[in-house]
Specification:
This protein is 0% helix and 54% strand. By secondary structure, the protein is mostly beta strands. The strands form 2 sheets. Strands 1, 2, 3, 5, 6, 7 and 8 form a 7-stranded antiparallel β-sheet that branches.
Amino acid sequence: MPTVSAQSAPVFEAGGGTTITGLASPSRGAQDVAVWRVRFAPDNPSPTHSLTREETFLVLSGALAARFDDHVETAGPGDVLIVPAGPDFSLVAVDGPAEAICAMPVGGQAVTTEGTFTPPWAE
């Protein structure tokens, strides 16, 4: 049974003040679920993208909004955002920084105007 310590987990700078710490993934011993910790800078949305698999965000601190074409879902500490596969969305911390734990089935990919890819923190 692999253990990934927070101190040894790889850290990725995703731009705009967003930092992602890769926790569970196939390269770190997970077979079914990838998990990472995300620290969002305030008012700096992620690029708009969609997903090939459902992704969930457990908000640890701050407030996190998922902006879809037709609505916005906002979650605070202890809340969970469930982002379905398919629709375009972006994520943004509102009213200050936010932090969340994210989980997605192994093999889930992001789809952008530049193509479909597995994020490096989920590999």
